[in-house]
Each structure stands twice: as C-alpha cells, then as structure tokens.
Amino acid sequence: MKRTQNRASAWQDLRMDTFRQAGRFSFGVLVKLVLNRRVFRPIVTLRLCQAAARSHGLLWLCLPILRIFHLATTHLAGIDLPWRTEIGSGLLIPHGWGMVISPMARIGRNVTLFHGVTIGQLDLIHPDGQRTTGYPTLEDEVWVGPHAIVVGNVVVGEGSIIAGGALVTRSVPAHAVIAGNPGTILRRGCVPDVSNRAPVDDSDKTL
User: Fold this and answer.
1) Mind listing the pLDDT tens digit for each residue in 18-43?
2) For residue 9, what pLDDT is reported?
3) N or C: which end of the chain has fewer CB within 10 A?
C-alpha cells in the first residue's frame, strides 16, 4: 500500500487516542486518563517520542528522556509497544497485559487491540536455506481480540475482526471475521467494531 505524504501531528494523534478512550476530548480528560489509565500512558509516551524524533528543536533533545519514560510506562502496563511503531490516530487498548507489538508492524486508524495480542515478525526458511522476514499491516478500524496472533507479511483489511485466540498468518480481506487456528474466514461484510470512533480524516492516513 502507498503511504500518503501527509501525516497528522502527534497532538492530533493524541486527541484522537483520548477520544477513543473517553468518547470526547478535553485537556482535563487527557490529564485524567494519564493519571488513571495505565494502558493509556504508553500511548501518550509513544506519541511524545515520535513527536520528538520528528522535531529539530529543543524537543528533539528531550528524546532520550522521553524514551526512558516510554520504557517505564510500557513496563508498568505489562506491554511491549516500541515507540517507533507506526500507528495511526485513535488507538484503543482496553486491557494491555501481555500485548507484544513489533516495531516494524504498521497499524492504521481507529484500531482496537486487546490484552495478550501479538502483532509480530514471522521468519520463513526456504528449501535453499534462505530466510525471509515479514511484518503485519493492520488497516483502519481493525479489531483484534484477546490473545490473537497476527504474524508475517500479511495485511488485515479495513474493518476486519480478529477473534480472540485466532492465529493469522495470511492476509485478511476487508470487513471479514476471522477465528480459529489457523485463522479462517467465518463471515464477510461485517460491520467494524469501533467503540468511540475518532473523527479522523485523510490528512491522518498512515497506510
């Protein structure tokens, strides 16, 4: 998929992340979530790290400190969420324990990830001994249930639902329900499961 040239600011990302959590945005709501939601704090520090990495001023000098904060917040939340991971606006993590995300994965807008989810690397060893490595892409409004595993060079289509415990190693069409091990299509044409859908637009498109 082609990547668009425009990208929302970290502040706009954070506004939409807050909206997914609370159904509305205000600075007070943001502060309350930071203080009270252990699975929200890593999203905040991820956005700050990415903002600092894109900056050329004083904020860029703060990146090492922000990375330490991010390590601390992910540790306290019990998740592995590398700050370099490309994630669109409106990420929702309802329960984060045991979640592992590869830094090379790509995640779209208004995506929901539950506890125990793995979005990671898959290595294929060919008959001649050569190794190829792939990482997943989750398009907009994908919902991934508890303990589901999505690995390898696969694309999970927009609005699809990955049921809890599913193993996905092949690409998934848009608006499909996937369940089982190996993951199989149970239904097509499903309605995306997006609670508190953040009002993002094409200026925020990451994929």
Assistant:
1) 999 999 999 999 999 999 999 999 99
2) 87
3) N
Q: Is residue 47 part of a domain?
A: yes
- Cα–chain-centroid distance for residue 35? 21
| Single-letter residue type at 18 | T
pLDDT score at 45: 98
Q: What is the CA radius of gyration of the chain?
A: 17
Given a contact cutoff of 8 angstroms between Cβ atoms, the answer to whether 185 and 202 are in contact is: no
pLDDT of residue 71: 98
Distances (CA, A) of 122 to 16, 102, 119, 153, 162: 31, 10, 10, 7, 18
Neighbouring C-beta atoms of residue 16, cutoff 10 Å: 24
pTM: 0.90
My answer on whether 121 and 187 are in the same domain is yes
* Range(s) of the domain holding residue 164: 94-192
Structural domains in the chain (count): 2
Instruction: Give pLDDT < 50 ranges for the chain.
Output: 1-7
Nearest to 187 by CA among 158, 162, 153: 162
For β-strands 131-134 and 122-125, DSSP reports them as antiparallel
Q: Is 200 exposed, middle or buried (0-12, 13-18, 19+ CB in 10 A)?
A: buried
Kindly state whether residue 89 falls inside one of the protein's structural domains: no
